[in-house]
């Protein structure tokens, strides 16, 4: 079972190090890598605690808000009966009906998703579930001062490296991420410098 603990530890450290260096993991490829690391960390932890009969140690009241947030986002992506959606959010129902009435639209429908952009809602659900998986993996894995110290050292080290890279990029005047990659989603590589 030691290899499962090492896998969880490796995935947690890799996720903590990767996310900020991948421009906050906002690019689609970076979101996929971060989600893969999070789910792998959680899977390794779950196999280890279930095999050891310690699954109850993962129960925490902190998971209640996380599960509620996941349910809230998931509810926005599924189709609701038109009457229920109109009762809960009349403006959203009116927007869906207006789009359906446009030329090339689907015409009147019996159900709509509350989300006006279902693809973005699905992406948000995947990332939120990855963050919950990382939280649960860290909660279940960190049981000693040495493990906590290791994660704290990674956070401080990555923060230092990212700030140093940001300063160097700002001084060099480049608008590319790490001097070679254009940002596909726009924005400034390390935030905007506010000068009067």
Produce a short descriptive summary.
The protein is mostly helical and 196 residues long. Helix content is 67%, strand content 2%.
Strands, helices and their partners?
Layout (H helix, E strand, L loop, with lengths): L1 H20 L6 H25 L10 H15 L2 E2 H7 L1 H12 L9 E2 L5 H24 L3 H28 L24
Antiparallel strand pairs: 1-2
Helix pairs in contact: 1-2, 1-6, 1-7, 2-6, 3-6, 4-5
* DSSP strand content: under 5%
| Strand tally | 2
Helical stretch tally: 7
Q: What structural class should be given to the helix and strand makeup?
A: mainly alpha
The strand line-up of the biggest sheet is 1-2
Poorly predicted parts = none
Rg, Cα atoms, Å:
22 Å
Structure commentary:
There is one protein chain. With 196 residues, this protein is mainly α. The protein contains 7 helices and 2 strands; from the N terminus they run αααβααβαα. The longest helix is centred in the last third of the chain and has 28 residues.
């Amino acid at each position: 079972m030691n290899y499962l603990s090492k896998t969880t530890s490796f995935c947690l450290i890799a996720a903590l190090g990767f996310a900020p260096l991948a421009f906050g993991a906002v690019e689609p490829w970076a979101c996929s890598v971060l989600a893969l690391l999070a789910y792998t960390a959680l899977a390794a932890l779950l196999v280890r605690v279930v095999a050891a009969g310690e699954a109850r140690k993962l129960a925490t009241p902190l998971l209640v808000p996380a599960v509620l947030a996941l349910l809230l986002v998931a509810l926005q992506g599924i189709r609701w009966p038109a009457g229920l959606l109109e009762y809960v959010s009349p403006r959203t129902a009116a927007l869906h009906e207006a789009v359906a009435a446009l030329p090339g639209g689907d015409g009147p429908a019996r159900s709509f998703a509350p989300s006006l952009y279902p693809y973005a809602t699905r992406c948000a659900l995947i990332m939120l579930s990855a963050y919950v998986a990382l939280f649960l993996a860290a909660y279940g894995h960190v049981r000693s001062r040495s493990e906590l110290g290791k994660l704290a050292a990674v956070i401080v080290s990555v923060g230092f490296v990212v700030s140093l890279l940001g300063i160097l990029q700002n001084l060099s005047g480049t608008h590319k991420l790490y001097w070679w990659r254009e940002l596909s989603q726009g924005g400034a590589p390390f935030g905007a410098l506010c000068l009067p």
